[in-house]
Amino acid sequence: MVIEAARAKINLALHVTGQRADGYHLLDSLVTFADFGDELAIRPSAQDRFEITGRFAETLSADADNLVTRARDGLRGLAEELGYETCPVDITLTKSLPLSSGIGGGSADAAATLRGLMRLWNLDVPRDRLARLCLSLGADVPMCLESSPLIARGIGEDIEPLATLPSFFILLVNPLKPVSTPQIFRLLTSKTNRPLPPFDPAQSDWLDYLAGLRNDLQEPAQRLLSDIGECLQQLEESGAKVCRMSGSGATCFGLYRDEMALERAALTLEQAKPQWYVRAGRTLEGNAS
């Protein structure tokens, strides 16, 4: 059996820098991953089987179109094209991340499926073929396949590993209310914003640098869902040094200087907002596996 982590993706910053003729938006995003998320267990089986367990299992149907089964079928087709034999698999997804929440849950699940099946089936897939498969599954899947700190440009496919990014104490909060990503992009007032500035270690530390960045989707998302503003206010009042929305929301994060401040904030928000998703942890360092 292969166990594969599908870590939560965190957009520490997301700058919208343009829009292609086909409608896709161009991004410049600083991305890291949490040390928690969903988990996939994959084992050989007599026939393909897919099961979902965990806190948010009821929000997905194992019988409906799903990124996990699409990733499985896409990789199997690619493997057969390359002359590999593949066996049927039993996949169990433990769904611990809320759906459609800006932290790459479905994309992380698809990427973890690809990583796990490549191990189980012992595949050596050319990087360009794998990249095309990832992008066909979703713009976030290529970065989730890396699952380590990076800068993503283009529509998410142009990836630059970020070996220097340190680990942060992070708190995620989500009001467990959906927001529409297409509608958020339609509400953008400017689609040609400045890209990420370079980090200068002589001028600031990482938290100071991150505080000066932004998520261009945050303001239109707050117009659609006022709870996002409340999440950010709660995080700021809890002592977070950086507060921001991740992706297209509605998950927001706070970064803290030390573990004690993180634990205190997590306890405060869990007690104040028991109906919210609240999760504390660490982010991965650059080059972490």
Automatic annotation (TrEMBL):
Database matches in Pfam families: GHMP_kinases_C, GHMP_kinases_N
GHMP kinase N-terminal domain segment(s): 75-145
Root EC class: transferase
Catalytic activity: 4-CDP-2-C-methyl-D-erythritol + ATP = 4-CDP-2-C-methyl-D-erythritol 2-phosphate + ADP + H(+)
One Gene Ontology MF term: 4-(cytidine 5'-diphospho)-2-C-methyl-D-erythritol kinase activity
Keywords: ATP-binding, Isoprene biosynthesis, Kinase, Nucleotide-binding, Transferase
Entry-linked InterPro entries: GHMP_kinase_C_dom (IPR013750), GHMP_kinase_C_sf (IPR036554), GHMP_kinase_N_dom (IPR006204), IspE (IPR004424), Ribosomal_Su5_D2-typ_SF (IPR020568), Ribsml_uS5_D2-typ_fold_subgr (IPR014721)
Source domain of life: Bacteria
Pathway note: Isoprenoid biosynthesis; isopentenyl diphosphate biosynthesis via DXP pathway; isopentenyl diphosphate from 1-deoxy-D-xylulose 5-phosphate: step 3/6
EC number in record: 2.7.1.148
Domain GHMP kinase C-terminal: 215-270
Active-site residues annotated for this sequence: 9, 140
Binding site for ATP: 98-108
PANTHER family, per database record: 4-DIPHOSPHOCYTIDYL-2-C-METHYL-D-ERYTHRITOL KINASE, CHLOROPLASTIC
Family named by the database record: Belongs to the GHMP kinase family. IspE subfamily.
Name of the protein: 4-diphosphocytidyl-2-C-methyl-D-erythritol kinase
